[in-house]
Write a structure and sequence with these properties.
The protein has 3 domains: 60 residues, no CATH class; 160 residues, Immunoglobulin-like (Sandwich), CATH 2.60.40; 106 residues, Mu homology domain, subdomain B (Immunoglobulin-like). Helices cover 6% and strands 44% of the residues. The protein contains 1 helix and 24 strands. The longest helix has 19 residues. It is rod-shaped.
Length: 342
Amino acid sequence: MTNHVRLLASASALAVVALGATPALAAGTASGTTITNNVSVDFKVGGISQTTSTASNTFKVDRKIIFTVAEDGSSTTSVTPGSTAQVTTFVVTNTSNATLDFSLAAAQLSSGASGAHSNTDSYDVTNLAVYADVNGNGSYDPGTDTRTFVDELAADSSVRVFIVGDTPLATANGSVAAVRLTAVGRESGSAGTLGAAITEDTGANQQNAVDTVFADTGRDNSESALDDYTVSAATLSVTKTSAVISDPVNNTTNPKMIPGAVVEYCITVANASGAATATNVTVTDSLPANTTYVNSSIYVDGDASCANGSLGGSQSGGVVTAPLSDIAGGATRSARFRVTVN
């Protein structure tokens, strides 16, 4: 009994030394690795050395399935109405002790659900799709990143995954579309092919075979994370007014809109506070019937009262065109021109 206890103690000590020499990694020793422990016992009888006794023990390291899915970064993806192939990015990290494939699924949250950044889902993106970063450059490349699953992700490795979608043109400023990426571990399989589903081993340990243990959150071999799109749109409002400048009878003193009177149209374009900057703004105005355009009367980039501004724009075929400079959120620009009443 004493020799047996000492033998076990020796084996345990040797095992501790062997494990202590292994570099510490998040994944740990690779699954399927055979760990062998050999022990020898030297002894004497009557002062004479006897044949050394030896024993050996082996077991295989089991497979520990653990991985994470996380948003890449900490901010929403800003999109404009009508934009296509807009990307939210996630990172899938395999901290298992084995190479794995991962199936990927993208889902749109229901209206009213909480997004990733203290916001609430209020619209749906269209053409929702999910792709893995095939070339590993960290950004979505249409035509290259076409694989819809993660292939052969080694232990202690990460890969970016992209959810891609379109924002409808009529979506209002500040609207949020929350999306979820779900990854499920799969067998590593053949390169370029999604491996088979993984089953956890729940029975007694098989010492010389590889068992599988789910160690992820929830122990269900499935992890997910949220991200979202937030619409940043220009919200323009247009106002058009007219004022009589002069008439052929009263001139500029209390003029009336009689034939021959000069009338000035004022068009103001206001962008709502907090809205995205509106670019390439162009005012197009068809001259009303019974009027004639007054040459060189178009002024652009005026203020909210149609004052100031500079001579510009054009008139052709009875249509006035007045380009305006960019209009930031909370700003107003204007255009004005004159006609004569026929």
